[in-house]
Amino acid sequence: MELTLETLGLAESAQLLSLSAPGWGANLLRGLANSLKIAFGAFGFGVLIGLFGAYGKLYGGPVIRDLLAIYTTVIRAVPELVLILILYYVGTDLINKAAGAMGYGRIEISGVVAGIWVLGIVQGAYSTEVLRGAIKAVPPGQIEAARAFGMPPIMIMWRVTIPAMMSFATPGLANLWLIATKDTALLAIVGFSELTLETRQAASSTRAYFTFFLAAGGLYLMVTLCSGVVFGWIEKWARRGQPSLRGGRG
Amino acid sequence: MPTAASADPLPVSDTRAEAIQVEDLHKSFGTLEVLKGVSLNAKKGDVVAIIGGSGSGKSTMLRCINFLETPSSGKIVIDGEEVEMNADGSPANRRQIERIRTRLAMVFQQFNLWTHRTLLENVIEVPVHVLKVPRAKAIARAKELLERVGLSDKADAFPAFMSGGQQQRAAIARALAVDPNVMLFDEPTSALDPELVGEVLTVIRDLAAEGRTMLLVTHEMKFAREVANHVVYLFEGRIEEQGPPAEVFGNPQSARLKQFLSSVA
Predict the structure, then answer these.
(1) Pairwise CB contact (< 8 Å): B108 & A145
(2) How near does any CA of chain B get to the CA of A175, in Å?
(3) Contact A150 B98 (CB under 8 A)
(4) Residue B89, pLDDT score
(5) What's the whole-number mean pLDDT along residues A33-46?
(6) Is residue A223 within 8 Å of residue A29, measured between CB atoms?
(7) End-to-end Cα spacing for chain A
(8) What is the ipTM score, two decimals?
């Protein structure tokens, strides 16, 4: 192993990426863990917003519909980087003002929480549209049958609409998840030590830019590949009961 | 009773409990008036067949009874309990209409089985989640019902892999699982291939024979004549003629019914 690295001229890189003291591998992994934490949180928060948003857009009153239209239009129109700067600084400023007004001192806002909140709001706008489309794709008869048997609206949502829309929503949500994992890199700009910022710090301290950014790229790629497998399972589960498109109805 | 056409179809001495009373039901879609004052009474054990041409309002009438469509005006009484309505005809009390719906099981033209659940899961869904029947009990009952409609070997199959006839029989099992007081059939065989109609009609015929109360919107005249004890002919949103099947089919009075019967024969 060592010999191979030596011959390939990679011994130095391996040392730089090592997990123990002189290497920066542990920093990169810590950054990755933070990135994933935010991506999970933001995606989950986004889907939650999306669910309420989609139901609001489909069944809400005119005021709710207008507000949601403004939300999805504005969020989807403004570049994520700009949104992150706005939401991060506005959000922390508001919280501190509120805390000050209530007599508390300056509050240190956790980077993870801020990241989840900022990216979650961005994700929520896209989720709203993905889920709205998926709910509309559910055959009306499915919901009508549930109503005809006396199911209350919330139960219809949990027992019928959401499971039935999952197969339509999964591809769009898988996309959103991948975007979430990569949008975490944008949080580097507000000084949050996720994978990209950790990589930049390691690279600039060691001048080994190529090594570290290639390693970071490799880590992002691994996340994507694993996600692909997981979403494959989810899609298979979501499409249960539906004849395969490839095989036809035999 | 407002009009002669909607007079109580059964003798006054009939002491069976009222199952469904519909009084002066109106329904408009925008400016199009689909039901123009329909009244109907069904007592416990009645099998009422509702016939009529397309667009006559027969499906709309059935769907107004469980408020899948919101009536424009009128009165609907189920098992002696009047459905509370807002001024616009929508149900005023959500809990009341949900409770009433659990006693009215509907069988749809397009089956409307939940596609992401197996046949067994479809049948236990409402008992377990709406009626709060213990799961094991619901499963045992569901198996009996699937056996009864001839689908015991398909309990774990998904609806999309079944024929239309099998799906409709499963939908009937789902309806029976709630132990309904009244069953509403909305053209249960209209979406089926001709060779599959028979198997579904056999199941419905059995249900009629055991004295279940049913409202049946159908295009199968022969079947209506055979299973119903009362036939209602709708024309353009009004009841044109009604009575015992032998009368309605054997000795139609109105010209429209005569023409309708000759066109479908």
Answers:
(1) yes
(2) 23
(3) yes
(4) 85
(5) 94
(6) no
(7) 53
(8) 0.88
Residue type, A227: S
Best residue in B66, B116, B120, B181 for a mutation probing chain A (most A CBs within 10 Å): B116
Query: Three-state secondary structure along A13-24?
Result: HHHHCCCCCCCC
Structure tokens, B4: 């002669």
Show Cβ contacts of residue B38 under 8 Å, excluding neighbours closer than 6 positions: B6, B22, B24, B25, B57, B61, B74, B234, B237, B238, B239
pLDDT higher than threshold 80 for residue A62: yes
Q: How far is CA A248 from CA A137, A242, A243, B93, B159, in A?
A: 20, 10, 7, 45, 15
Kindly report, residue by residue over B22-59, the tens digit of the pLDDT: 999 999 998 999 999 999 999 999 999 999 988 899 99
Q: For residues A106-119, give the mean pLDDT.
A: 82
Closest of A223, A219, A235 to residue A24, by C-alpha: A219
Going by DSSP bridges, is the β-strand pair B18-29/B73-78 parallel, antiparallel, or unpaired? antiparallel
Contact: A149, B110; criterion CB under 8 Å? no
Q: Which candidate, B206, B256, B212, B253, places its Cα nearest to that of B226?
A: B206
Residue pair B220/B197 in contact by the 8 Å Cβ criterion: yes
Contact criterion met (CB < 8 Å) for B158 and A159 = no
Find how far residue A145's CA is from the centre of its chain. Answer: 34
Spatial distance between the Cα atoms of A28 and A53, rounded to a whole number of angstroms: 36
- Cα dihedral: B127, B129, B134, B140 (round 10): 40
Task: Quickly list H helices, A60-184.
Answer: 62-77, 80-101, 111-137, 140-148, 153-155, 162-183
How much is the average pLDDT of B125-148?
A: 95
**C-alpha pair distances (Å), B19 with each of B113, B125, B174, B225, B230:** 26, 25, 21, 21, 14
Packing angle, helices A25-59 and A209-238, rounded to 10: 40
| Paired tokens of A14 | 């391996």
Say how far apart CA B205 and CA B207 lie, in whole Å: 5
**Closest A-chain CA to B126:** A149
Instruction: Tell me how far apart the alpha carbons of residues A161 and A157 are, in angstroms, rounded to a whole number.
Output: 5
Q: Are A83 and A75 in contact (CB under 8 A)?
A: yes
Domain spanning A27-238 has what CATH number? Answer: 1.10.3720.10
Contact A155 B130 (CB under 8 A): yes
Residue B106: list chain A partners with CB under 8 A.
Answer: 145, 148-149
Which residue type does A16 have? Answer: L
Kindly tell me the sign of the dihedral angle through the C-alpha atoms of A153, B67, B89, A137. positive
In chain A, what residues touch B158 (CB-CB under 8 Å)?
240-242
CB contact under 8 A, B130 and A151: yes
